[in-house]
Task: structure prediction
Amino acid sequence: MKNKLFIISMFAAAVVFSSCNKDLLDQTNPNSATIHDYYQSESDVLLAVNGVYQSLRSGNCIGENSGLFTEDRAGNTGGIDVQSNSGEPFQFGDFSILPSNSYLKSHWTALYQSVTRANVVLSNIDNVTFANADTKAGYIAEAKFLRALMYFHLVRKWGDVPLVTKQLTSTEVPLYTFRAKDTAVYAQIVADLKDVLASPLPNFQTGANLGRVSKAAANALLGQVYLTRAVTISSANKNEDLANAKTYLDACYNMRSFNALTDIPYADVFDVSKKTNNPEAIFSLVYKQGDINNSSSIAANNQAAGETINSLKVMTGLGGSVRHDLVNEYETSDIRKAFSIKYANATNVKDWFITKYRDTTAAASKLGYGGNDCPVIRYADVILMLAEVNMYLGDNATAISYLDMVRVRAGLPTYAVSVTDADYIAKYPTLKLAILHERRVELAFEQKYWFDVIRFFTTDELVAYYHAKNQLDFGTPKLTNFNKKDRYFPIPLDEYKLDPVKMYQNQGY
Result:
């Protein structure tokens, strides 16, 4: 029997928890349990929804240690090691990724595993009787948000992708083994997020529900989806999408509990002791300090040899290596630089490393079981998207007012003052490039920059943007490798082989 360890087959694998074998008498295996049988109570549904959240935290999905697929790809992070793990991690930052790359395959599989878990919830929740209809509607909304988030990652990274919105039986799997057009994927994302906004979910989650989906998160994500679709997908509806982006981003911004962004010190946004009362957080992946299975490891993993700023755990390696291209992006008086990165003097390092995520408390211990949450959406991100969308709509004055909110908190001059500086205007001669610059340094190591550059530039502009960078600031990875193919990842080879016609490969691979 041909062994299919592919994502489309994984949808079928989710149908049962254990196989149901039949002998010549067609007897049912008494030890088998179908998913349909599993859903008996409200608590069963809650556990299943929690399972969707849990899957997001994987380093193969979008969790704290998944920067290989975004930060390394964009040129913010990444070392010079071309040997480890057969050189596969290096391919992401070197723009030499192969369809056979096992890390790429794992990422694709993890994203679809989260989609599968959400689909299973949505396909079986009607089997359970709920005491309160709002509880059921809330679980449906959470599953739809998480599915939309996963498809938003998939469509931006691969373009056309398989689109599945229900639990599949084994006989249905071949019917979905094809790449749906990106326009269809975006339409599904929008539909899911509008359903979330029509649900009884609160504007923000509090207490024990911190980290769960809220209407503020749905507004922010839907605004970003409309913004991305408007500028990356050729459509006669561009202006309508931009108007919708502004509407939903404004709705999220107007839900905020703080007055001005300057009321929230930048360091406080990432302070583990203040994360349960962080007014800037909109949606984060939550990690539990001191818990061997559910703690955060990003602080320790980023720490370089000889350093103690991130964690009590003693590290001997390079830590979270920062590309000089990003180091040079920080302006002289930017307080975010001293908080986010540091130069390590150890003889085996002598380079910059990430310090944005820290937990040196006794509760995290010398084992590095930190309490850092992984930010997915926060208000500085929304504010800068409002700057971007207002710029596209031709309202530069409003765009600059939002840009200044972020710059002033960072201890920087306003945009009007900055453009009188020769160095600043030489680097960022347009408002568009100034906004991209601000997003890069404000949201560094939050898995935003790659999605930003593919939104800000056409494919030809993107190639020119990377080719214009200084090779010395990238080290071993070769900027000359970057070409039109690199706007998208290749379809993993095993997926392509399922059906080379319907699972066609992306151009250039």
Q: What stands out?
A: The first strand starts at residue 281 and ends at 285. The chain has a mean pLDDT of 92.
